[in-house]
Amino acid sequence: MRSISSAMRSLLLSGPSSPAFLPRATALCPLLSLPFRPDLSRPRPLAPPARSLSKKAAPTAAAARTRLDGRVPAMEAREAQSGEIHVIVGPMFAGKTTALLRRVQAEAGTGRTVALIKSDKDNRYGLDSVVTHDGTKMACWALPELSTFQDKLGREAYDKVDVIGIDEAQFFDDLHDFCSKAADHDGKIVVVAGLDGDYKRNKFGSVLDIIPLANSVTKLTARCELCDRRASFTLRKTQETRTELIGGADVYMPVCRQHYLDGQIVIEATRIVMDIERSTEVARC
């Protein structure tokens, strides 16, 4: 496909010179709260005289402390059991799976028990591992639905899992219900990676539905294959119109907004180059 990419670059970049590289945005400065300024023009009311606790009030205060002390352990246990949800989204080739594996491996490095899940629809690199585009891999469970995870793992083993990573999350229809139960009721840390939009820039699966549940959301970008700008969108090179179409660089490319809007030119250029290559191969035969 190198010849295809080279031909598309020459077709699309033959016009005006490509825009300069856009630097990554810098972090926003934190908001500063203004200090409280009392109104010194008004006289302050005199404080009421201090009173000692009566003998009748003492048992009441002690009882209040006893009730408070009784609540603290329950509150601490509740806090210890509460989970988290972290969402990683972006176009294809943005490094979502790499970010997911780094997060899961970091959690494992702290002594937590981790488990990794991916959709069994994604069989590009086999079903027993989550694999990044640069070849990094980690063993996983390939499932048709997230709801089957607990049964596959077993109740006792599931209870011991602290962190659950989910790759290609857009393929799971039960993503919202699973994440809600795992974090809210089971106390799991759930790290989700997936596409937020399809090749038409429409919502893809249920990934956007869990953002209101999330503790954090990270939007990654790739590099536009045609001009090296930051790419936020995925362009499909083929004429296939199905939303779910598993593929890699042979089917998709990351692009900036300008080249996404000019996508029809890219698709047509790809078709022309492929037709030329096909004709050349037939002529050689």
Automatic annotation (TrEMBL):
Region annotation (Disordered) ranges: 40-65
E.C. number(s) listed in UniProt: 2.7.1.21
Gene3D superfamilies per UniProt: 3.30.60.20, P-loop containing nucleotide triphosphate hydrolases
Keyword set includes Transferase: yes
Reaction equation(s) it catalyzes: thymidine + ATP = dTMP + ADP + H(+)
Superkingdom field: Eukaryota
Entry keyword set: ATP-binding, DNA synthesis, Kinase, Metal-binding, Nucleotide-binding, Transferase, Zinc
Biased composition annotated in UniProt, kind: Low complexity: 49-65
Biological process annotations from GO: DNA biosynthetic process; double-strand break repair; response to UV-C; thymidine metabolic process
Keyword Signal: no
Family as reported in the entry's similarity comment: Belongs to the thymidine kinase family.
Protein name stated in the entry: Thymidine kinase
Organism, scientific name: Triticum aestivum
